[in-house]
Amino acid sequence: GLSDEQRRTHPIPGKWSVHEVVCHLLDFEPISTDRICRVIAENEPTLIGADENALARALAYDARDFDEQLQLIA
User: Fold this and answer.
1) Are 49 and 57 spatial neighbours (Cβ–Cβ below 8 Å)?
2) What are the contacts of 44-53 at 24+ separation with CB within 8 A?
3) Spatial contact of 74 and 67, defined as CB atoms under 8 Å apart
4) DSSP of the chain, one letter per residue?
């Protein structure tokens, strides 16, 4: 029930907005699944890291449609 402005607000400076968190969850769900599978299946799994802030900029979280992101998560 939040407005677009509320979803994009950064209530804590330097922390992500609700909008950015939703975009991140959508993008990282397959990565998290891969990591979990590697931990279960491998003795010494290689877990690839990433700079989430650089990805947010490069993947244009600010330009994405919020409702579309929620539909893709669902």
Assistant:
1) no
2) 52/24, 52/28
3) no
4) ---HHHHH--SSTTS--HHHHHHHHHHHHHHHHHHHHHHHH-SS-------HHHHHHHTTGGGS-HHHHHHHH-
For 18-65, the pLDDT digits (tens) are: 999 999 999 999 889 999 999 999 999 998 888 899 999 999 999 999
Taking each helix axis from N to C end, the angle separating 18-41 and 66-73, rounded to the nearest 10 degrees, works out to: 30
Q: Rounded to whole angstroms, what are the CA distances from 39 to 24, 29, 30, 48?
A: 22, 15, 14, 12
Residues whose CB is less than 8 angstroms from the CB of residue 39 and which lie 6 or more positions away in sequence, other chains included: 45, 47
pTM of the model: 0.84
Q: Which two tokens stand for residue 72?
A: 């893709």
Give how far the C-alpha of residue 55 lies from the chain's centroid of Cα atoms, to the nearest Å.
Answer: 9
